[in-house]
Amino acid sequence: METRLDRYEGAREKKLEQLKQLIKESKYIVFLGGAGVSTESGIPDFRSGEGIFNQESGLSYRPVDIISHSFFEAHPEEFYDFYRRKLCYPKARPNKAHRALVRLEKQGKLKATITQNIDNLHQMAGSQTTIELHGSVFRNYCTECGEKYDLDFVLKSKGVPHCTKCGGIVRPDVVLYEEHLEHENIDNAVKAIKKADLLIIGGTSLTVYPAATFAQFLKSDRVVIINKSSTYLDLQAMLTIHDSIGTVLDTVISKYIPKPKPETKKTASRKPASKAASKTSAKKPAEKKAPAKKAPAKKASTAKKPAAKSTASKKAPAKKAGSNSKKKD
Questions:
Q1: In this predicted structure, what is the pLDDT of residue 257?
Q2: N or C terminus: fewer CB in 10 A for the chain?
C-alpha cells in the first residue's frame, strides 16, 4: 500500500533524501520494529493477507488462539505442533534491513534496536543493542527446574518436549498472548526512546501493545514510519514511507562501517599511556637526583659544624686565659 503523495513523480526519492538528512543530523536514533522486518528473510508476518493469522493452522483452532497462554496450558500437544510449523525458522538469515541497522549502530548513531520479533535475526546480523520485547524461540527452559535448552532440542523432540533432568515441560522463552512482558525490557525501551532525537518505526502495523504506545515517550515529533501498510501514526509522523523496509534502510543508511576507527582510538589511547609511562619513568630518575642534590647540602651543614667547634675551641683558651689571670691576681 502507498500514500497518494508517494504516487507523484519523484515523491519517493524526496522522502528518501529527507530520511537521509534526518539520519545525518541525528545523534541518538532508536529503531522500533515488528514482523515486517523479517518478512524479507522468509518469515511471514501475522496480520497481512498472507500472514500467520490468515493461514490455515492445520488444526481445529484459530492461530491467534493457539499462541495464547491458556491454550498452551490446556493443549500443549497442539501448541507444539503449530509452534514448530509456523513460528520456528532456524534456517532464516538476516536481510538488508537487519544489516543496514547494524551499519547504523557501528556508525555510532543507532543506540537501541527494539524488536517485537522472536527470530533472533538482529543478533545474527551483529546487533549489540537489541531489546527483545517478546523473547526468542532460540531460548527455552524447563517450567519446573529452569534448566535451559536451545531451539534444536525443541525441534527434535516429539510431541511436548520434556526436561532431561526433572521431566518437566520445556517451553519457549517467548511472550504468549495473556502473558506480561518483562518489566526490564519495557523500562529499557522507554528509557532509550526518551533519550532519542529520532525514532524510526518499521515493519509494524502498531496494533500490538504496549509497543504501539512507545512513540508517546519521544520528547520531540521526529518520528519516521516505514511500513507497507498504514498505521495510526502515519498522519502524525514527521515522515511516512510505504515501501519495503529492507530497500529503504539499505538505501538511506551509508554502507560505510568505521571498523578501523575504534581500533585506532584504542591504539591511540594506549600510546599516550605508554608515553606517559615513559615520562613517568623519566621523572623517577629526576626524583632520585633531587635527594642527591640535598645530600651535598647536608654535607655543607656538617662542614659548618667543625667551624663552630673551632670557634668554641678559640673561646676555650680565652676562658683559660681569664682563669690564669685570676690565678695571677
A1: 81
A2: C
How many CB atoms within 10 Å of residue 242?
20
Nearest to 136 by CA among 42, 38, 245, 213: 38
Dist. CA 187–CA 182, nearest whole Å? 9
SS (H, E, C) 274-325: HHHHHHHHHHHHHHHHHHHHHHHHHHHHHHHHHHHHHHHHHHHHHHHHHHHH
Tell me how crowded residue 131 is: count the other CB atoms within 10 A of its CB: 21
Determine which one of 98, 122, 134, 242 is catalytic.
Answer: 134
Domains delineated in the chain: 4-262 (3.40.50.1220)
- Indicate the Cα dihedral angle 152, 158, 164, 167, nearest 10°: 140
Write 62-68 long-range contacts (CB < 8 A, 24+): 64/177, 67/176, 67/177, 68/176, 68/177, 68/178
With beta carbons less than 8 A apart as the criterion, state whether 118 and 111 touch: no
Q: What is the pTM of this model?
A: 0.75
Integer angstrom CA distances of residue 107 from 23, 177, 253, 258, 261: 11, 36, 10, 6, 10
Per the annotation, the verdict on 183 as an active-site residue is no
Residue 237 has what pLDDT?
Answer: 95
CA–CA gap between residue 29 and residue 104 (Å, rounded): 9
